[in-house]
Amino acid sequence: MRQFTIRVPASSANIGPGFDVLGIALSLYLTIEVTIDHKNANNVPLNCEVTNSGLGAEQLPTAADANLITRTALYILRCHGMRTFPVGTKVHINNDIPLGRGLGSSGAAVIAGVMLGNAVGQLDLSKERLMDFALMIERHPDNISAAMFGGFVGSFLRELSGTELERVEIPVAEVLPEPSGGVDTGLTPPEPPVGISRQMSYDLAPELKAIAVIPAFEVSTAKSRDVLPTAYTRQDAIFNLQRLSVLIPALGRSPVDAELVHLAMQDRLHQKYRRILVPGLATILTFMTPRTHKGFVGVCLSGAGPTVLALATENFDAIAEEIVSAFNAEGVECTWKLLDCCDGATVEEK
Ligand SMILES: Nc1ncnc2c1ncn2[C@@H]1O[C@H](COP(=O)(O)OP(=O)(O)OP(=O)(O)O)[C@@H](O)[C@H]1O
Ligand SMILES: N[C@@H](CCO)C(=O)O
Protein backbone atom coordinates (compact mmCIF):
# COMPACT_ATOMS: atom_id res chain seq x y z
CA MET A 1 0.00 0.00 0.00
CA ARG A 2 1.19 3.53 -0.80
CA GLN A 3 -0.06 6.71 0.86
CA PHE A 4 0.87 10.31 0.24
CA THR A 5 -0.41 13.87 0.71
CA ILE A 6 -0.33 16.69 -1.84
CA ARG A 7 -0.71 20.25 -0.54
CA VAL A 8 -1.12 23.27 -2.83
CA PRO A 9 -1.57 26.88 -1.67
CA ALA A 10 -4.06 29.52 -2.80
CA SER A 11 -2.64 32.48 -4.70
CA SER A 12 -3.38 36.07 -5.58
CA ALA A 13 -2.52 37.12 -9.13
CA ASN A 14 -1.71 40.55 -10.61
CA ILE A 15 -1.04 42.58 -7.38
CA GLY A 16 -2.24 45.72 -9.20
CA PRO A 17 -0.11 46.49 -12.27
CA GLY A 18 1.30 42.97 -12.78
CA PHE A 19 -1.65 41.78 -14.84
CA ASP A 20 -1.06 38.14 -15.90
CA VAL A 21 2.51 38.46 -14.55
CA LEU A 22 2.73 38.53 -10.73
CA GLY A 23 1.45 36.04 -8.18
CA ILE A 24 1.80 35.52 -4.42
CA ALA A 25 1.22 32.11 -2.80
CA LEU A 26 -1.11 32.48 0.20
CA SER A 27 -1.53 30.29 3.28
CA LEU A 28 -4.90 28.66 2.46
CA TYR A 29 -4.63 25.13 1.11
CA LEU A 30 -6.03 22.49 -1.17
CA THR A 31 -4.99 19.16 0.39
CA ILE A 32 -5.26 15.76 -1.26
CA GLU A 33 -4.87 12.47 0.62
CA VAL A 34 -4.03 9.63 -1.76
CA THR A 35 -4.09 5.89 -1.01
CA ILE A 36 -3.15 3.21 -3.54
CA ASP A 37 -4.10 -0.20 -2.18
CA HIS A 38 -4.25 -2.99 -4.81
CA LYS A 39 -5.49 -5.51 -2.23
CA ASN A 40 -8.56 -3.49 -1.18
CA ALA A 41 -9.58 -2.19 -4.60
CA ASN A 42 -13.23 -1.51 -5.46
CA ASN A 43 -14.35 -1.90 -9.05
CA VAL A 44 -14.72 1.80 -10.00
CA PRO A 45 -14.32 3.64 -13.34
CA LEU A 46 -10.70 4.49 -14.14
CA ASN A 47 -9.67 2.72 -10.86
CA CYS A 48 -10.13 5.97 -8.94
CA GLU A 49 -12.56 6.78 -6.11
CA VAL A 50 -12.86 10.52 -5.41
CA THR A 51 -14.33 12.11 -2.28
CA ASN A 52 -14.56 15.82 -1.45
CA SER A 53 -14.70 17.83 1.76
CA GLY A 54 -14.36 21.52 2.56
CA LEU A 55 -15.42 24.45 0.40
CA GLY A 56 -17.51 23.55 -2.65
CA ALA A 57 -17.56 19.86 -1.66
CA GLU A 58 -21.24 19.51 -2.57
CA GLN A 59 -20.78 20.99 -6.05
CA LEU A 60 -17.43 19.47 -7.09
CA PRO A 61 -17.66 16.28 -9.18
CA THR A 62 -16.62 12.89 -7.78
CA ALA A 63 -16.22 11.10 -11.12
CA ALA A 64 -12.49 10.85 -11.85
CA ASP A 65 -12.95 12.02 -15.44
CA ALA A 66 -15.08 15.01 -14.40
CA ASN A 67 -13.23 16.47 -11.39
CA LEU A 68 -10.63 19.03 -12.54
CA ILE A 69 -7.92 17.56 -10.26
CA THR A 70 -8.23 13.91 -11.31
CA ARG A 71 -8.94 14.86 -14.94
CA THR A 72 -5.68 16.79 -15.02
CA ALA A 73 -3.89 13.80 -13.48
CA LEU A 74 -5.45 11.56 -16.12
CA TYR A 75 -4.22 13.92 -18.85
CA ILE A 76 -0.61 13.63 -17.71
CA LEU A 77 -0.92 9.85 -17.22
CA ARG A 78 -2.31 9.40 -20.74
CA CYS A 79 0.53 11.46 -22.21
CA HIS A 80 2.79 8.82 -20.63
CA GLY A 81 0.95 5.76 -21.92
CA MET A 82 -1.14 5.04 -18.80
CA ARG A 83 -4.88 4.95 -19.52
CA THR A 84 -6.14 4.76 -15.89
CA PHE A 85 -5.06 5.31 -12.31
CA PRO A 86 -3.31 2.38 -10.60
CA VAL A 87 -5.78 -0.26 -9.33
CA GLY A 88 -7.11 0.69 -5.88
CA THR A 89 -6.52 4.48 -6.04
CA LYS A 90 -8.51 6.57 -3.54
CA VAL A 91 -8.28 10.36 -3.64
CA HIS A 92 -9.74 12.48 -0.84
CA ILE A 93 -9.80 16.21 -1.66
CA ASN A 94 -10.13 18.76 1.14
CA ASN A 95 -10.46 22.32 -0.14
CA ASP A 96 -10.02 25.49 1.95
CA ILE A 97 -9.76 27.83 -1.07
CA PRO A 98 -13.03 29.63 -1.93
CA LEU A 99 -14.10 28.85 -5.51
CA GLY A 100 -14.33 31.56 -8.18
CA ARG A 101 -13.25 34.38 -5.85
CA GLY A 102 -9.85 35.35 -7.28
CA LEU A 103 -7.78 33.26 -4.89
CA GLY A 104 -6.54 30.80 -7.48
CA SER A 105 -8.79 27.83 -6.72
CA SER A 106 -8.64 26.54 -10.30
CA GLY A 107 -4.88 27.13 -10.48
CA ALA A 108 -4.42 25.15 -7.26
CA ALA A 109 -6.65 22.35 -8.64
CA VAL A 110 -4.60 22.14 -11.85
CA ILE A 111 -1.29 22.11 -9.94
CA ALA A 112 -2.69 19.46 -7.58
CA GLY A 113 -3.70 17.46 -10.67
CA VAL A 114 -0.25 17.52 -12.30
CA MET A 115 1.38 16.64 -8.97
CA LEU A 116 -1.12 13.78 -8.56
CA GLY A 117 -0.49 12.41 -12.06
CA ASN A 118 3.26 12.65 -11.55
CA ALA A 119 3.10 10.86 -8.20
CA VAL A 120 0.65 8.04 -9.04
CA GLY A 121 2.39 7.39 -12.39
CA GLN A 122 5.84 7.62 -10.72
CA LEU A 123 6.88 9.81 -13.65
CA ASP A 124 9.51 11.78 -11.74
CA LEU A 125 8.94 14.96 -13.78
CA SER A 126 10.43 18.23 -12.52
CA LYS A 127 8.19 21.06 -11.32
CA GLU A 128 9.32 23.02 -14.42
CA ARG A 129 8.08 20.26 -16.77
CA LEU A 130 4.86 19.86 -14.76
CA MET A 131 4.23 23.58 -15.39
CA ASP A 132 4.07 22.82 -19.13
CA PHE A 133 1.25 20.34 -18.54
CA ALA A 134 -0.52 22.79 -16.20
CA LEU A 135 -0.28 25.55 -18.82
CA MET A 136 -2.09 23.41 -21.38
CA ILE A 137 -5.11 23.75 -19.06
CA GLU A 138 -4.77 27.08 -17.14
CA ARG A 139 -3.30 29.37 -19.78
CA HIS A 140 -2.00 32.34 -17.84
CA PRO A 141 1.00 31.58 -15.66
CA ASP A 142 0.56 33.90 -12.66
CA ASN A 143 -1.60 31.80 -10.29
CA ILE A 144 -0.06 28.46 -11.24
CA SER A 145 3.54 29.70 -10.89
CA ALA A 146 2.78 30.94 -7.37
CA ALA A 147 0.89 27.74 -6.46
CA MET A 148 3.69 25.53 -7.78
CA PHE A 149 6.81 27.40 -6.61
CA GLY A 150 5.42 29.43 -3.69
CA GLY A 151 6.47 32.92 -2.57
CA PHE A 152 6.21 36.07 -4.67
CA VAL A 153 6.74 35.13 -8.31
CA GLY A 154 6.85 36.78 -11.73
CA SER A 155 6.42 34.74 -14.89
CA PHE A 156 6.05 34.92 -18.64
CA LEU A 157 5.25 32.56 -21.49
CA ARG A 158 8.03 32.26 -24.05
CA GLU A 159 7.35 32.85 -27.75
CA LEU A 160 6.44 29.49 -29.24
CA SER A 161 7.21 28.21 -32.72
CA GLY A 162 4.37 27.58 -35.20
CA THR A 163 4.01 23.87 -34.44
CA GLU A 164 4.35 24.44 -30.68
CA LEU A 165 1.64 27.11 -30.89
CA GLU A 166 -0.71 24.69 -32.62
CA ARG A 167 -0.34 22.38 -29.61
CA VAL A 168 -0.96 24.99 -26.92
CA GLU A 169 -3.88 26.52 -28.77
CA ILE A 170 -5.82 23.27 -28.84
CA PRO A 171 -9.08 23.87 -26.90
CA VAL A 172 -8.90 22.74 -23.26
CA ALA A 173 -11.78 20.33 -23.96
CA GLU A 174 -9.46 18.37 -26.28
CA VAL A 175 -6.58 18.42 -23.79
CA LEU A 176 -8.85 17.18 -21.03
CA PRO A 177 -11.27 14.84 -22.84
CA GLU A 178 -14.89 15.46 -21.91
CA PRO A 179 -16.24 13.16 -19.17
CA SER A 180 -17.26 9.85 -20.73
CA GLY A 181 -18.63 8.02 -17.70
CA GLY A 182 -15.33 6.23 -17.18
CA VAL A 183 -15.32 4.79 -20.71
CA ASP A 184 -11.88 5.14 -22.29
CA THR A 185 -12.22 6.98 -25.61
CA GLY A 186 -8.76 5.73 -26.61
CA LEU A 187 -7.64 9.26 -27.55
CA THR A 188 -4.09 10.29 -26.72
CA PRO A 189 -4.00 13.95 -25.67
CA PRO A 190 -1.46 16.45 -27.04
CA GLU A 191 1.86 16.62 -25.15
CA PRO A 192 2.87 20.17 -24.24
CA PRO A 193 5.92 21.90 -25.73
CA VAL A 194 8.92 21.97 -23.36
CA GLY A 195 9.63 25.09 -21.30
CA ILE A 196 6.50 27.13 -22.05
CA SER A 197 6.94 29.43 -19.05
CA ARG A 198 9.81 31.04 -17.24
CA GLN A 199 9.50 32.31 -13.68
CA MET A 200 11.51 34.18 -11.11
CA SER A 201 11.02 34.43 -7.34
CA TYR A 202 11.28 37.82 -5.70
CA ASP A 203 11.88 38.84 -2.11
CA LEU A 204 8.88 39.93 -0.09
CA ALA A 205 9.45 41.99 3.03
CA PRO A 206 8.76 39.63 5.98
CA GLU A 207 6.54 42.14 7.82
CA LEU A 208 3.99 42.18 4.96
CA LYS A 209 0.76 40.26 5.46
CA ALA A 210 -2.18 39.87 3.09
CA ILE A 211 -5.74 40.70 4.13
CA ALA A 212 -8.12 38.91 1.75
CA VAL A 213 -11.66 40.31 1.86
CA ILE A 214 -13.84 37.74 0.15
CA PRO A 215 -17.32 38.72 -1.11
CA ALA A 216 -20.12 36.15 -0.89
CA PHE A 217 -20.48 35.82 -4.65
CA GLU A 218 -18.42 34.27 -7.44
CA VAL A 219 -16.99 35.88 -10.56
CA SER A 220 -15.65 33.37 -13.04
CA THR A 221 -12.26 34.17 -14.53
CA ALA A 222 -13.76 33.79 -18.01
CA LYS A 223 -16.43 36.44 -17.28
CA SER A 224 -13.89 38.76 -15.69
CA ARG A 225 -11.65 38.52 -18.76
CA ASP A 226 -14.55 39.13 -21.12
CA VAL A 227 -14.99 42.70 -19.80
CA LEU A 228 -11.40 43.64 -20.67
CA PRO A 229 -10.44 45.47 -23.87
CA THR A 230 -8.49 43.58 -26.53
CA ALA A 231 -6.00 46.46 -27.01
CA TYR A 232 -4.57 49.22 -24.82
CA THR A 233 -3.14 52.68 -25.43
CA ARG A 234 0.58 53.31 -25.21
CA GLN A 235 -0.05 55.57 -22.17
CA ASP A 236 -1.80 52.77 -20.27
CA ALA A 237 0.90 50.23 -21.12
CA ILE A 238 3.61 52.64 -19.95
CA PHE A 239 1.60 53.51 -16.81
CA ASN A 240 1.64 49.84 -15.73
CA LEU A 241 5.23 49.08 -16.77
CA GLN A 242 6.55 52.06 -14.82
CA ARG A 243 4.71 51.03 -11.67
CA LEU A 244 5.63 47.36 -12.05
CA SER A 245 9.34 48.21 -12.28
CA VAL A 246 9.13 50.00 -8.93
CA LEU A 247 6.60 47.73 -7.21
CA ILE A 248 8.67 44.53 -7.43
CA PRO A 249 11.81 45.79 -5.67
CA ALA A 250 9.75 47.98 -3.30
CA LEU A 251 7.82 44.94 -2.00
CA GLY A 252 11.10 43.20 -1.22
CA ARG A 253 12.63 46.02 0.77
CA SER A 254 12.32 46.03 4.56
CA PRO A 255 11.16 48.23 6.24
CA VAL A 256 8.48 48.69 3.59
CA ASP A 257 8.05 52.16 2.07
CA ALA A 258 4.25 52.12 2.26
CA GLU A 259 3.75 55.40 0.36
CA LEU A 260 5.81 54.09 -2.55
CA VAL A 261 4.16 50.66 -2.69
CA HIS A 262 0.70 52.21 -2.47
CA LEU A 263 1.39 54.40 -5.52
CA ALA A 264 3.14 51.59 -7.40
CA MET A 265 0.13 49.27 -6.96
CA GLN A 266 -2.06 51.39 -9.26
CA ASP A 267 -3.18 49.75 -12.49
CA ARG A 268 -4.81 50.74 -15.77
CA LEU A 269 -5.03 47.39 -17.57
CA HIS A 270 -7.73 45.47 -15.74
CA GLN A 271 -9.10 46.83 -12.44
CA LYS A 272 -11.12 49.77 -13.82
CA TYR A 273 -12.88 47.51 -16.33
CA ARG A 274 -13.73 44.96 -13.66
CA ARG A 275 -15.48 47.51 -11.40
CA ILE A 276 -18.80 46.69 -13.05
CA LEU A 277 -18.51 43.12 -11.73
CA VAL A 278 -17.50 44.05 -8.18
CA PRO A 279 -19.74 46.65 -6.46
CA GLY A 280 -17.66 48.82 -4.12
CA LEU A 281 -14.34 48.13 -5.86
CA ALA A 282 -13.90 51.69 -7.17
CA THR A 283 -14.24 53.11 -3.64
CA ILE A 284 -12.09 50.43 -2.01
CA LEU A 285 -9.21 51.03 -4.42
CA THR A 286 -9.09 54.76 -3.63
CA PHE A 287 -10.27 55.57 -0.11
CA MET A 288 -7.38 54.18 1.96
CA THR A 289 -3.81 55.46 1.97
CA PRO A 290 -0.84 54.79 4.26
CA ARG A 291 -1.44 58.30 5.71
CA THR A 292 -5.08 57.73 6.60
CA HIS A 293 -4.72 54.12 7.80
CA LYS A 294 -1.84 53.02 10.01
CA GLY A 295 -0.19 49.84 8.77
CA PHE A 296 -1.92 49.97 5.37
CA VAL A 297 0.47 49.48 2.44
CA GLY A 298 -1.61 48.93 -0.69
CA VAL A 299 -4.75 47.37 -2.13
CA CYS A 300 -5.74 45.61 -5.34
CA LEU A 301 -8.28 43.28 -6.86
CA SER A 302 -7.08 39.72 -6.20
CA GLY A 303 -6.75 37.88 -9.53
CA ALA A 304 -9.94 38.14 -11.55
CA GLY A 305 -11.89 39.11 -8.37
CA PRO A 306 -14.16 39.63 -6.59
CA THR A 307 -11.77 39.26 -3.59
CA VAL A 308 -9.88 42.39 -2.62
CA LEU A 309 -6.33 41.99 -1.31
CA ALA A 310 -4.83 44.59 1.02
CA LEU A 311 -1.16 44.43 1.99
CA ALA A 312 -0.44 45.67 5.50
CA THR A 313 2.15 45.53 8.27
CA GLU A 314 -0.10 46.07 11.34
CA ASN A 315 -3.63 47.15 12.34
CA PHE A 316 -5.03 44.27 10.28
CA ASP A 317 -8.48 44.07 11.91
CA ALA A 318 -9.25 47.76 11.43
CA ILE A 319 -8.10 47.76 7.78
CA ALA A 320 -10.14 44.63 7.04
CA GLU A 321 -13.24 46.06 8.75
CA GLU A 322 -12.99 49.27 6.65
CA ILE A 323 -13.00 47.22 3.43
CA VAL A 324 -15.83 45.01 4.70
CA SER A 325 -17.88 48.18 5.51
CA ALA A 326 -17.29 49.55 2.00
CA PHE A 327 -18.56 46.27 0.51
CA ASN A 328 -21.51 46.21 2.95
CA ALA A 329 -22.46 49.77 1.88
CA GLU A 330 -23.02 48.32 -1.61
CA GLY A 331 -25.09 45.45 -0.20
CA VAL A 332 -22.24 42.92 -0.54
CA GLU A 333 -21.68 40.48 2.35
CA CYS A 334 -18.14 39.25 2.85
CA THR A 335 -15.68 37.49 5.13
CA TRP A 336 -11.99 38.20 5.55
CA LYS A 337 -8.81 36.28 6.28
CA LEU A 338 -5.34 37.30 7.33
CA LEU A 339 -2.86 35.32 5.22
CA ASP A 340 0.88 34.92 4.89
CA CYS A 341 2.99 34.44 1.80
CA CYS A 342 3.92 30.73 1.85
CA ASP A 343 5.81 27.89 0.15
CA GLY A 344 4.55 26.16 -3.00
CA ALA A 345 3.11 22.73 -3.76
CA THR A 346 4.45 19.69 -1.90
CA VAL A 347 4.07 15.89 -2.05
CA GLU A 348 4.76 13.99 1.16
CA GLU A 349 4.93 10.18 1.14
CA LYS A 350 3.77 8.51 4.37
N1 LIG B 1 -10.76 21.74 -5.71
C1 LIG B 1 -11.31 21.76 -6.93
N2 LIG B 1 -11.70 20.63 -7.50
C2 LIG B 1 -12.28 20.63 -8.71
N3 LIG B 1 -12.52 21.77 -9.42
C3 LIG B 1 -12.14 22.93 -8.92
C4 LIG B 1 -11.50 23.00 -7.64
N4 LIG B 1 -11.22 24.29 -7.39
C5 LIG B 1 -11.67 24.99 -8.45
N5 LIG B 1 -12.23 24.21 -9.36
C6 LIG B 1 -12.86 24.62 -10.63
O1 LIG B 1 -12.43 25.95 -10.94
C7 LIG B 1 -13.54 26.86 -10.98
C8 LIG B 1 -13.14 28.23 -10.49
O2 LIG B 1 -12.19 28.75 -11.38
P1 LIG B 1 -12.03 30.31 -11.69
O3 LIG B 1 -10.80 30.45 -12.52
O4 LIG B 1 -13.31 30.85 -12.24
O5 LIG B 1 -11.82 30.96 -10.26
P2 LIG B 1 -10.58 31.03 -9.28
O6 LIG B 1 -9.51 30.10 -9.80
O7 LIG B 1 -11.08 30.76 -7.92
O8 LIG B 1 -10.15 32.55 -9.41
P3 LIG B 1 -8.80 33.27 -10.00
O9 LIG B 1 -8.32 32.44 -11.16
O10 LIG B 1 -9.25 34.64 -10.40
O11 LIG B 1 -7.85 33.33 -8.87
C9 LIG B 1 -14.58 26.18 -10.09
O12 LIG B 1 -15.88 26.62 -10.41
C10 LIG B 1 -14.37 24.70 -10.43
O13 LIG B 1 -14.96 24.37 -11.66
N1 LIG C 1 -4.28 37.20 -14.33
C1 LIG C 1 -5.54 36.55 -14.36
C2 LIG C 1 -5.74 35.79 -13.06
C3 LIG C 1 -7.01 35.01 -13.00
O1 LIG C 1 -6.76 33.66 -13.09
C4 LIG C 1 -6.64 37.57 -14.52
O2 LIG C 1 -6.57 38.61 -13.85
O3 LIG C 1 -7.56 37.35 -15.32
UniProtKB/TrEMBL annotation:
The GHMP kinase N-terminal domain, residue ranges: 67-151
Q: Which UniProt keywords are given for this protein, alphabetically ordered?
A: Amino-acid biosynthesis, ATP-binding, Kinase, Nucleotide-binding, Threonine biosynthesis, Transferase
From the Swiss-Prot or TrEMBL record, what is one GO molecular function term?
Answer: homoserine kinase activity
Which EC number(s) does the record attach to this protein?
2.7.1.39
The record's InterPro entries line, in alphabetical order, gives: GHMP_kinase_C_dom, GHMP_kinase_C_sf, GHMP_kinase_N_dom, GHMP_knse_ATP-bd_CS, Homoserine_kinase, Ribosomal_Su5_D2-typ_SF, Ribsml_uS5_D2-typ_fold_subgr
Instruction: Please tell me whether the keyword Chaperone is annotated for this protein.
Output: no
Q: Which reaction does it catalyse?
A: L-homoserine + ATP = O-phospho-L-homoserine + ADP + H(+)
Q: In which pathway does it act?
A: Amino-acid biosynthesis; L-threonine biosynthesis; L-threonine from L-aspartate: step 4/5
Asked whether the keyword Hydrolase is assigned, the reply is no
Q: What class of enzyme is it?
A: transferase
Pfam families noted in UniProt = GHMP_kinases_C, GHMP_kinases_N
- What are the GHMP kinase C-terminal domain coordinates in residue numbering? 260-325
One GO process term, biological-process aspect: threonine biosynthetic process
Give the protein family.
Belongs to the GHMP kinase family. Homoserine kinase subfamily.
What does the protein in this record do? Answer: Commits homoserine to the threonine biosynthesis pathway by catalyzing its O-phosphorylation.
Output this protein's name.
Homoserine kinase
Which species is this UniProt entry from? Wickerhamiella sorbophila
